[in-house]
Amino acid sequence: MDQTTLEVSPRRRAADHGPLVDPADIARDIGAVGVHAGNSREARAAVVQILKRWLAEARKTAEQRLIADADGRSCAEALSRFQDDVIRVVYDWIVTKLYPSDNPSSGERMTVVATGGYGRGMLAPGSDIDLLFLLPYKQTAWGESVAEAILYCLWDMGLKVGHATRSVDECIRQARADQTIRTAILEARHILGDMVLFNELEQRFGAEVVRGTVPQFVAAKLAERDERHRKTGQSRYLVEPNVKDGKGGLRDLHTLFWIARYAYRVKTDEELAKKGVFTRREAQTFRRCERFLWTVRCHLHFLTGRAEERLSFDLQRELAPRLGYRGHSGLVDVERFMKHYFLVAKDVGDLTAILCAELEERHEKPAPVLDRFIARLRPKSPRGFKESPDFQIDHDRITVSDAEAFARDPVNLIRIFALADRYNLALHPDAMRLLTRSLKLVDEKLRHDPIANQLFIAILTSANTAEVVLRRMNEAGLLGRFVPDFGRVVAMMQFNMYHHYTVDEHLLRCIGTLQQIERGGDPNLGLAADLIKTIQPRNRDLLYITLFLHDISKGRPEDHSIAGAKVARRLGPRFGLTKAETETVAWLVENHLVMSTIAQSRDLSDRKTIETFAGVVQSLERMKMLLILTTADIIAVGPGVWNGWKSQLLRTLYYETEPVVTGGFSEVNRTRRVEIAQEEFRRTVPEALPDLSGPTLEAYIGRHYAAYWLKVDLATKIEHARFLLAAEAAGQSLATRVDLVAGQGVTHLTVLAPDHPRLLSIIAGACAAAGANIIGAQIYTTTDGLALDTISISRGFDRDEDEERRAKRIADSIEKALRGEIKVGEAVAAAHRKSSARQRSRTFRIAPDVAINNTWSNRYTVIEVSGLDRPGLLHDLTAALSRHSLNIGSAYVATFGEKAVDVFYVTDLMGAKVQTAQRQAAIRRVLTSVLEDDGSR
Fold first, then answer.
1. Which residues contact 24 (CB under 8 A, 6 or more apart)?
2. What is the residue extent of each domain of the chain?
3. Which pLDDT value is given to residue 338?
4. Which of 466, 488, 599, 697 has the fewest CB atoms within 10 Å distance of its CB?
């Protein structure tokens, strides 16, 4: 897809409108403020009020121009010029009326210099202002008074001002020792005062600081960038990106320009093209990216009234129409806006890679040390490949032998990446530039070329660096052109809180995750790491192809699983698959969500659940492939989404279904698997729980049903035992426990209580009343009538000690509610009125859905509800079921971002299914009303 088609067409091209406010008008108003003996404070207060009025006028005009022109760079430059004018006018008023000096000494000279972002001559509405008061040698009383008066005026205006007062000598000395100060001075810009002093600073900075230190500066700036990316999220495709500090954001452009300015001594991006670092087209890309990111950032600041840099979901929805986006081609306005954003972020990454490669060529940057960039062969001069004379190795990079390499044979567009993967080589920037200019060679003939497709499948299924090479193909624009269906999802975000990445990034991460599963060695990968060793060799390749295709039809009106299966059937023959192989891939794509859905939202101890799933998979090999696919898919959604509980559920579903699909034979039958789980527990107990032994141990094991032993992981079983025994020793039938889960953003609350029909409803209500958002629940009952429920809630604090205090407060609320000391319904409504759930209801729109099914279980009616999650939803749903005289046999609670999917296995008070259509309709109506309610009732 041509990226330019996604740009917002400005209502009119940006033009130089002149200053936001005429500085002569500001000077006139301030000049009218007189200073008399004893009234300097009052005079300054009067000046500040005038400046506030002009600041409001300037920002109003800037916002109007921004909306009209859609040019954030022009807006930022205008705001910077306005700030310059304010400082000049204030300075003139101070030195003429507040602190006049009729016969200034040589020391009473001052230069006011803009540094940092302000030094670049661009300011967002909420940006800090960084000033340097440059002195000839030492501070004087006059200079100190002037600088202080300027700062107080700016602070009193409500501006955030960073400042330093230094001599030239001090600037040079501190710049040598501190990279932050060095960077600030690198962007220094004269505002007013002694120009000779400023020129001296610039001259000495270049001669005494920059000279001979380029490699160290480049390394330091790139290290800063990497640390910033680590803090804000390693991917540039996070669905709630940070416009300033995120990967592919403005700070990356700034870092790129700092390095270029330091290394090449240039002051504008145009000069980078003249120096040959960027081509003219790349320089235009730099300006386009900068303009777009500044536009988004300025709108963010104006919209929120503060220096907000994170594009949260609610702000995305408000910004999209404000920026002129409209729904089109199956994408709503906000998805088109974010698609454009991610394409820009990709371009920023490309520009950074080009500059780094140029610096390496000049030996101004150390060569990369990551495996991907380490060549196995290090020739001292360019050397060719036996596979093709059109390529050669140059400085550990693969490049073309001549400028006609791609035109001569378009298959070389794919072949260069296949060779890069095979020999673990990076691509030379010259080759990448030629490839980008040659993308028009990708036509139907190349797409259906057998050799090109064979090379592509070799990359996709490679055990070497498939994810990295595919990502480079994607960033070059080749992957979306070679596979147009993939091109439709490039930079496509899914407007929900569950998926952390764009669709294309998720697909590529799935490939990398499957490689991790295949390599093994990580116990957190669950059963998939064992099963992948047992599948047929050809099916291993089919798994890679399936993962590449499983979400390729997102954003279409048709269900993406069904549409994706059609795409798989169309692409399979092109990729060289047989008819049977194509059908296997299509089946996996169409059913890629089935195993996850059943494992997380069905009763796995119910025979009907297992028979239904077995009827879907039909063979053991398919089930193995589906489990591996499901594991990779969940892990690649984002950090913390995969956990031991989901791993255990998939394992249980697999082993429960295995004897059914194998005609009654099972390598490990259900009874034996329960025995194995119990034996594993017995082996662990002596070290973990030395007081639990002999008859006491066997009695404890007998307290849990078979489903518990199959569904719960060993570590949790040990903690449960410790919890139950401690409660028993204390004579408690009601107790709670808190567990913080590192790295998952989740806290677990385990509740032990006498079982009764409204137990889950009361627990859910107490959590909601305490401000906790439930994202999952595991519910078990012991043979002696106790409920052992683990409720997963979203973490509220980063610091463990703060989160532990919060969780204990919530647990205390649960205990009080179960003892009847809290009126849960009233507490839930009161808490909701204080919450931000209504904001979520404005941001996300999910149609409520209630499905009532009597075929999913032999004993229970299964009710599945889905809708917009909110605090108290689970309480309201379970309370509604209780009011309709339904017993909840088991419940399966899951939250996918902002979407709640809860499944209840119910019977009437007589233990029978809900059969009548009238009663089912009544239940459906009341549950739908709960889903539609914002919870304030």
1. none
2. 3-211, 216-361, 733-932
3. 87
4. 697
Q: Which amino acid is at 327?
A: G
CATH code for residues 733-932:
3.30.70.260
Query: Distance from first CA to last CA of the chain, Å, rounded?
Result: 48
Within 13 Å and on the Cβ side, how many CA atoms surround 181? 17
pLDDT at residue 656 tops 50 = yes
Whether the pLDDT of residue 587 is over 60: the answer is: yes
User: Taking a C-beta distance cutoff of 8 angstroms, is the pair 443, 406 a contact?
Assistant: no
Give the separation between CA 865 and CA 252, rounded to whole angstroms. 44
Listed residue (200, 538, 218) closest to 365, CA to CA: 218
**In Å, how far are 22, 121, 304, 667 from 57, measured between CA atoms?**
11, 20, 18, 77
* Distance from C-alpha of 269 to C-alpha of 277, rounded to nearest angstrom: 10
| Mean pLDDT taken over the chain | 86
Distance CA 40, CA 50 (A): 15
Answer CATH for 3-211 from 3.40.718.10, 3.30.460.10, 1.10.10.10, 2.60.40.1180: 3.30.460.10
Q: What is the pLDDT of residues 276-303, one digit of tens each?
A: 777 788 888 889 999 999 999 999 999 9
The residues near 202 (Cβ < 8 Å, ≥ 6 apart) are 188
Per residue in 51-110, pLDDT tens? 999 999 999 999 999 999 899 999 999 999 999 999 999 999 998 888 887 666 666 678
Q: What are residue 225's phi and psi, to 5 degrees?
A: -60, -45
Sequence-separated (6 or more) residues with CB below 8 Å from residue 154: 86, 87, 90, 129, 161
- Which residues are bridge partners to 310 per DSSP? 242
**What is the domain class of 216-361 according to CATH?**
mainly alpha
Asked if 315 contacts 303 with a C-beta cutoff of 8 angstroms, the reply is yes
Distance CA 90, CA 67 (A): 30
Q: Could you tell me the maximum CA-CA distance found in the chain, to the nearest angstrom?
A: 105
* C-alpha dist (Å) from residue 836 to 204, 450, 666, 774, 936: 54, 55, 51, 15, 11
- Compute the distance between CA of residue 602 and CA of residue 616 in angstroms, rounded to an integer: 15
Q: Using 50, 70 and 90 to split pLDDT, how confident is the model at 124?
A: very high
E-state strands within 177-247: 189-193
Q: What is the mean pLDDT of residues 330-344?
A: 85
Q: What is the pLDDT of residues 683-695, one digit of tens each?
A: 999 998 998 988 9
